[in-house]
Specification:
alpha+beta, Rossmann fold, 6-stranded antiparallel β-sheet, 13 helices, elongated
Length: 314
């Protein structure tokens, strides 16, 4: 938002570009564009971004966030729109040294080179601390009106927001699930146990309690009615859905290869029973079924917490 204001002060028209993937959405950018009064293009980056997450050339940050590869991808996609939008260069709100891995001097230069648009990436907040770009050399931008912010402190940014009358802006942290510890642990578990995973598996990671029953079989148990409905929507034809036959309780998905799945039905049903209203019963009737298949029933004793705890992926 501050980068946009700095460019607008130089009489430059700015078009916003934001991206959506299963790991982050566009809501914050949409609110920012409204405040700034600029047009915004929203681009679904899912397919290309999943490839980057699965095999990042420059590795991960603290969790499973491939920030350098991700930033390069975003700038490349923006650069590919230059001709279509009759635009001349790309700008970001990055600050030198704000992120230790992805916004150090080397990383910023690397992102620019790998984007395929070297020299055309302007970072107005730290422009004076970085080599002159083509827009500066060509006189499209006055380098003297760029800033020299660096480091992790955001005091200058907050002062600038007040100066520009920006009252609402997103917090500096958060927004991408790949930087969140619990989600990252769950995603690493998928990466380590499944060769072919995609959007469905990622969406499933956002819902319920996740338990690893074997290297190839897992159980996901809903925590409320909303999650129960979400699990039913995300279930694949080969998955087994499990829930109590009579008592109110969670819906669960048992996912794994067919040759293993049958072996874990009783254990999965017992765990699911533990989280329902019949958890104090000596025995409980549970039902299980494929999303479009016949319902079968099984009698189980609700699992104990000490049996469940070692299986939780958290």
């Amino acid at each position: 938002m501050l980068a946009v204001k700095i460019l607008q002060e130089q009489g430059i028209e700015v078009i916003g570009i934001t991206y959506t993937t299963p790991f982050f959405g566009s809501s914050k950018a949409e609110e920012a564009a409204k405040q700034l009064g600029i047009d915004l293009k929203i681009i679904d980056l899912t397919e290309a971004h999943l490839d980057v997450v699965k095999l990042p050339k420059h590795g991960y940050g603290r969790f499973v966030n491939p920030c350098i590869d991700c930033h390069a991808l975003m700038i490349r996609k923006a650069g590919d729109l230059l001709e279509e939008l009759s635009a001349h260069f790309i700008s970001t709100g990055e600050v030198l040294g704000q992120r230790p891995k992805s916004q150090n001097y080397r990383a910023l230069r690397l992102v620019e080179e790998e984007s395929g648009y070297p020299g055309l990436v302007v970072r107005p907040l730290s422009g004076k601390l970085l080599p002159p770009t083509i827009p500066e050399k060509e006189g499209w931008i006055d380098r003297e009106k760029l800033l020299d912010i660096s480091g992790r402190s955001r005091k200058r940014q907050m002062a600038l927001a007040e100066y520009y009358g920006i009252k609402e802006y997103p917090s500096p942290a958060g927004g991408c699930l790949l930087t969140e510890q619990v989600f990252a642990i769950r995603l690493k578990d998928v990466m380590n146990t499944q060769e072919n995973w995609g959007v469905n598996e990622v969406e499933l990671l956002k819902v319920g309690r996740h338990l690893r029953l074997s290297p190839k079989t897992k159980l996901i148990v809903g925590r409320n009615q909303e999650e129960n409905k979400r699990l039913e929507m995300l279930a694949k034809p080969e998955d087994l859905l499990i829930r109590a036959a009579a008592f109110k309780g969670p819906t669960a998905i048992l996912r794994g290869p067919a040759e293993e799945r049958e072996d874990f039905i009783k254990q999965a049903a017992a765990i699911t029973a533990r989280y329902g209203k019949g958890k104090e019963e000596e025995e409980l009737e549970m039902k299980y079924y494929h999303p479009s298949g016949p319902v079968q029933k099984i009698i189980v004793k609700p699992a104990r917490d000490e049996e469940i705890k070692p299986l939780l992926i958290n």
